[in-house]
Amino acid sequence: MTSEKLSLSSTKTSLHTLDSQASSEDYTVHAKESPCMIRDDPLSIRRLSGSLHSSEDPNEIKQYLEDEERLREEYSDLDLQRLATKTTILNRIASTFHNAEDDFVIDQYRVPVEDNGEEFKSIDPELVTWALDSPENPRNWRMSKKVYVTLIVSMYTFVSPISASIMSPASKDLAQDFDIQSSTVQALVTSIHLLAWVIGPLIIAPLSENERLGRRTVLNWTCWVTFVFNLACAFSKNTTQLIILRFCSGLFSATPLNVSPAVISDMFDAKSRNTSLAGVFLIPFIGAAIAPVIGGYVVEARGWRWVLFTLAIINGAIALIGLALFTETYSPSLLHAKAKRLRKATGNPNLHTIYELSGDGLTLGKLKETVTRPLMLLCTNPLVFGLGSFMAFIYGFLYLMIVTFPSVFEKSYGFSQSTAGLMFLALGVGFVLGVVSWTIALGYVYNKLVEKHGVAKPEFRLPCLFVSAVIMPIGLFWYGWSAQYKLHWIMPCVGSGIFAFGLVCVFQALQAYLIDMNPAFAASSIAAASMFRFLLGFLFPLFANIMYEKMGYGWGNTMCGILAILLGIPFPFFCYKYGERLRAWCNERMEKSEEKKRAERQEALRRKAEALIR
């Protein structure tokens, strides 16, 4: 049956009436008042709901077609009612921006809806979402499948650190081939990767929040692009080519570091994701420790170019495995694909997801926001700047060790390149022990403080930092002075392991704090701190050899240890004591700056609602 054409004024009047009816409590509308609704009998509700929110079974699709025909026969103007329903939903989403409670998290890239718009199912049976306990919903996957996907995404994160640090043992051979006289340029070949990590994730990672791309597409293509640049590095003809190609590789290789926590969040709720996040968090550190071991053996046997060929082989293998086995986890992308299949199967072009209805997607405006907001937080939020500075310096100290390990163990101890590479395993042992120990300790202390005070506060994440602020300087002193006096080779290894053990606490505690202090801007807070730490991770190795030549390993690492104490005790203490007041002040300022953006989003949704009736 074709719908009767109405004048604009009468259409608006009808829609206004229907919208008012659809706005009643619990979004319920009597069937005769809204033809877009199912009849008020359980059988028809079950049939239509089953057709839309289950897998595309032929019998269910057939039943949906029968239900749709029944609706068309029963109601005179189904298209008008669809417009009314869509207008109602858009108006409700728009009002959510204005009326959101303080603890309501508005995603930076998505519209503020819960459960992928399931709260609107009762007024829009053509809305494609997940049924209760739907096996297609990543949150409802079997635990075995979640573990399997976690392992695959962890493999992606392995590419990032090995790409960054595998060249460290090859710096001497590379310098001979390309006649590099400057120790700064030698270090630049390794650390340039981290400079790219400052920029790349801000632009590329948000693409995974677009429902037409999703996590799988972004992770796969960035892994393959990284492979191409890593392979191209092996054919470099001079230092400039190598540095440029490694920078390009770094732009894409950092993406898994930012997207992998989002993948875990897609599958696990807040209470059950800690263990999986700890595993994903550990892999980059393990990669940073294992890569120089691989590089040391390969450069000794085949030369520096084969170090890059080996990197490309590992990268390519992971890219192939991911392409074949990684499953999409982003619900908006999965729902987008489901709606597309259902539209084709049923011939009903009106089936849609909440994100298609609201016009969600990554726009240039949103992309600009993802780049500028972390910078704004870093410059205007003292908590982000202070704690981010602490993280950045500690990360810089780590890369000081990574680029100077070859000179310590090859020159001071006379080890071969392959044997010197094995010394990096001391860092790996420290990382593994740190993740296991600090995950337990941080959770225990946090839960005890919550139990004691009867309320959860972000500051309860910080007490363990006072312990790590002592452990890390001990590791730096131990490593530096044992290398200075050429004590048994195990001694600098023990010192580096102690430092790595303490470093894990800093990253776990501060990332949890940055998330908890304002969940609505968690991604931007983490991005701001990451930018700062990758920047210092890039800069510190450039002056490492010069510093140690002037000061020696003992005094050079003593200076680093003193800085770790000066940053590691005052900042956490200040945040623990005054953090609540400072958070309130910072959040108030941030909220004021966001009000204009929310008003613009609200107005855009209302304009879209108006456009539906024109």
UniProtKB/TrEMBL annotation:
Entry annotated with the keyword Transmembrane: yes
Subcellular location, principal: membrane
Domain Major facilitator superfamily (MFS) profile: from-to ranges: 149-580
GO CC annotation terms, alphabetical: membrane
Topological relation to the membrane, as annotated: Multi-pass membrane protein
PROSITE patterns: MFS
CDD domains, sorted: MFS_Tpo1_MDR_like
Transmembrane residue ranges: 147-167, 187-206, 276-298, 304-326, 375-402, 422-446, 462-481, 487-514, 526-548, 554-575
Region Disordered, annotated ranges: 1-27
A single MF term (Gene Ontology): transmembrane transporter activity
Short name of any one Pfam family annotated for the protein: MFS_1
Coiled-coil annotated residue ranges, if any: 582-612
Ranges of Low complexity composition bias in the record: 1-20
InterPro entries, per the entry: MFS, MFS_dom, MFS_trans_sf
Compartment(s) of residence: Membrane
Protein name: Major facilitator superfamily (MFS) profile domain-containing protein
Native organism: Metschnikowia pulcherrima
Lineage: Eukaryota, Fungi, Dikarya, Ascomycota, Saccharomycotina
